[in-house]
Design brief:
about 425 residues; six-stranded parallel sheet; 17 helices; Rossmann fold; alpha/beta; 14 strands
Length: about 425
């Protein structure tokens, strides 16, 4: 079993470190946030991620999982250093490497001889080679091992992944990282570092394009009287297409798709390639978000101006099953509603505090409270809790029983029977 340092205790670092401890390794997770580290050492999970809490407690009790402040404290005695640091976008869409550069500067001279740095973060192609130059340590290998987990299902995705990708310049380094995952039953693909880095960006950009494609089809369905759910089901049976990522929505977002597709576009630009298809998918997504807001305003009762109406929004995080608000499409739609002079009250099972830079947004503690006196209600994320609401009670609370279902979560017939005007997406 190996001595492993994990740098960054966010969604990826906390999941990676906790699961590596579960696989039997001796893991130290470092973060710069002292309060976070203290909470984690006390067994308190700082993010919402099903299954993580039990494994974390187990690791702490077994003595093979601990949390420290600062990368050096974790890396000093480790053989593998998993970098799980933020890679936010720069204003031009390229990847901001500040977190990486400063963490590398911090640890490069204290890394034990023959250590392996493992890049788990999503990084632009060429990063491993650049880091190799930056550290100036011939004994230290830099390996790319992108993470494909999806929030809300992170533990399962880590322990039962669709594949493990390892990019390395030497077979020895690749094998040593692969050995860490030997108890995980999946395919391991070994590549060069550039391909491995590109695999991750390509995967996210492709999924984002797939969503844009089905959102475009949803718009077409509305114009020609087809139902996008039937169309998606019909094409999804074809194994060449696959049935996932074919659910239309308000537009994609979250902490990965927007920044990763923009970063890939920047990579292409820098390489002198005009990646028109990806560029179009990004701009079309912005249109979809705008269109969702317009759809809500158009649904308001005749003669009702947005400024004199109240809109109830259900769902604020970027999807159901997470507490992550980063680049949430729900928030973008709500911003557009504000720009259209709408007044919005919102409920989300994971959010109970005001949202930064959205002082106009009223957050309620139940969906019924959000619906109180509302002229329209919009479903922005697909929590089962929203499908299970008592819609008779919602109807009684609302001033006008109008539902815009931007996730196609509800059953239109059920709502219409209850007297709602139901507006779905592409149906
Ligand atoms: N969140 C996802 O679903 C997901 C999935 C796959 C890949 N990724 C990628 O993984 C990377 C990390 O994403 P995340 O969502 O876990 O980010 P995050 O913001 O949740 O976590 C990053 C953590 O790193 C800490 N940190 C920053 N600088 C540090 C330093 N010098 N030393 C120690 N800790 C430091 C921060 O305090 C934070 O806790 C990104 O590149 C992201 O694109 C994310």
């Amino acid at each position: 079993m190996a001595d492993i340092a994990v740098i960054g205790a966010g969604y990826v670092g906390l999941t990676t470190g906790t699961c590596l401890a579960h696989l039997g390794h001796n893991v130290t997770i470092a973060d710069i946030d002292e309060i976070k580290v203290q909470k984690l050492n006390e067994g308190e999970v700082t993010i919402f991620e099903p299954g993580l809490s039990g494994l974390l407690t187990q690791g702490i009790e077994n003595g093979n999982l601990k949390f420290v402040v600062g990368a050096t404290s974790a890396s000093r005695n480790a053989a593998f250093h998993f970098l799980c640091l933020p890679t936010p976008p720069n204003p031009d869409g390229s990847t901001n490497m500040e977190y990486f550069s400063s963490a590398i500067e911090e640890i490069k001279d204290i890394l034990p001889p023959n250590s392996v740095i493992v890049n788990k973060s999503t990084l632009p192609v060429g990063t491993a080679s650049q880091l190799k130059k930056q550290i100036q340590r011939t004994d230290v290998e830099i390996v790319s091992n992108p993470e494909f987990l999806s929030e809300g299902n992170a533990v399962q995705d880590f322990l039962q992944p669709s594949r493990i990708v390892i990019g390395a310049e030497s077979q020895k380094a690749a094998s040593s990282v692969a050995a860490l995952f030997k108890d995980i039953d999946t395919t391991t693909q070994i590549t060069g570092t550039e391909s491995s880095e590109l695999i991750k960006h390509t995967a996210n950009a492709f999924l984002a394009m797939k969503l844009t494609f089905i959102n475009e089809i949803a718009t077409l369905c509305e114009l020609v009287g087809a139902n996008v759910l039937d169309v998606a089901e019909g094409i999804g049976y074809d194994p060449r297409i696959g049935s996932t990522y074919l659910r239309p929505g308000p537009g994609w977002g979250g902490s990965c798709f927007p920044k990763d597709s923009s970063s890939l576009l920047q990579t292409a630009n820098k390489a002198g390639f005009d990646f028109e298809l990806l560029e179009k998918a990004i701009t079309l997504n912005q249109k979809h978000l705008q269109r969702t807001a317009q759809k809500v305003v158009n649904a308001l009762p005749q003669g009702k101006e947005p400024e004199n109406s109240k809109i109830a929004a259900l769902g604020l995080t970027f999807k159901a099953g997470t507490d992550d608000l980063r680049s949430s499409p729900s928030l973008t739609v709500i911003e557009h509603l504000f720009n259209l002079n709408g007044r919005v009250s919102a409920y989300d099972p994971m959010v109970n505090l005001p949202i930064e830079n959205m002082s106009k947004l009223e957050i309620t503690s139940t969906a019924y409270e959000a619906a109180n006196n509302a002229d329209a209600l919009v479903i922005l994320t697909e929590w089962q809790e929203f499908a299970d609401l008592n819609f008779e009670r919602i109807r009684e609370a609302m001033r006008h029983p109008i539902v815009v279902d931007a996730r196609n979560l509800l059953n239109p017939q059920d709502l219409e029977l209850l007297g709602f005007q139901y507006i779905g997406l592409g149906q």
